Amino acid sequence: MGKAQDKLVDGLYGLGWAGVKKLPEPAAVALGRRIADVAWKRRGRSVLRLESNLARVVPDATPERLRELSHAGMRSYMRYWMESFRLPTMDPKRFSTDVAFTDEHLLREALASGRGVVVALPHLANWDLAGAWAIGHIGVPFTTVAERLKPETLYDRFVAYRESLGMEVLPHNGGAAFGTLARRLRSGGLVCLVADRDLSASGVEVDFFGATARMPAGPALLAQQTGAVLLPATLHYGDEPKMYGRFHPEVEVPRQGTRIEKTAAMTQAVADAFATGIAEHPEDWHMLQRLWLDDLEERP
């Protein structure tokens, strides 16, 4: 991406943050739907990739059903952006009224244990809103990791935005971030990681909807090294403005096996929890990129 394009992309995101949060909520909702509908009708690369991914999740879906799901998926994706642009100006009381988690006690009990907690989430619904819920409703700040975006100014906007909500955001730069996360967990803190896609060499291969994908080893490794509780969580949207979530049972460290074997088993368990939530609400899974290894092999 060249400097001119960098400036354009950063400017567009800056316009979104500055403009959308000033809109009345019904206007922001309508704008998000209109943008989603236009993008879906154009049948661009991202929409086609979303449909291809959804075909894995709902293998018996007809072409018509896949188009319905991808249309709903694009609306869900733009709802995420509209909400995220508006989050810094949202009344914190709404984090309790507009967001509800099933089995919330699993998080509260894990935090009370003092062991530290790693919450692993997929790209479902609005993970930023879930983070704001944890801070505003549970009353616990947390640490997360953000991938470095191009241009750098766009990455800085993301970090500043998330930090304005009370999150500690670390750059995704390998060992340094891992060490900081481990320290936060050893002091009994909360770490939240989006963990359903990892194309790096350190990713763990998992069976995901019947084919091989690669997911981050970080959540499992952190739990092993620090003794923290590893909780998968999944999200889905309800009618505006409601969002719902679910905490899945703790993924425990296997008693036997090598470190690699334990990491593989734990990451597979996280993937299975993700698959449960995604299968229940496929339209809210914002995976507009290649994920499965055989899809990656299609590239020349």
Largest sheet: 7 strands, mixed
What is the string of SSEs from the N terminus onward? HHHHHEHEHEHEHEEEHEEHH
Output the radius of gyration: 19 Å
Task: Please indicate the percent range of residues in DSSP E strands (runs of 2 or more).
Answer: 15-25%
* End-to-end Cα distance: 20 Å
Q: State the share of residues found in helices, binned by percent.
A: 40-55%
Strand-pairing-aware structural class: alpha/beta
Please state how the strands of the largest beta sheet are arranged side by side: 1-9-8-2-5-3-4
Poorly predicted segments: none
Helix count?
12
Mean pLDDT score: 90
Shape, principal axes of CA atoms: globular
Strand tally is 9
How would you concisely characterize the structure shown here?
This protein is α/β, with parallel strands linked by helices. 53% of the residues lie in helices and 16% in strands. Helix 8 links the parallel strand 3 and strand 4.
Structural description of this entry:
The chain is built from 12 helices and 9 strands. The longest helix is centred in the N-terminal third of the chain and has 24 residues. Helices cover 53% and strands 16% of the residues. The strands form 2 sheets. It has a 7-stranded mixed β-sheet, sandwiched between helices. Strands 6-7 form a two-stranded antiparallel sheet. With 300 residues, it is of the alpha/beta class. It is globular, with a radius of gyration of 19 Å. α9 crosses α10.
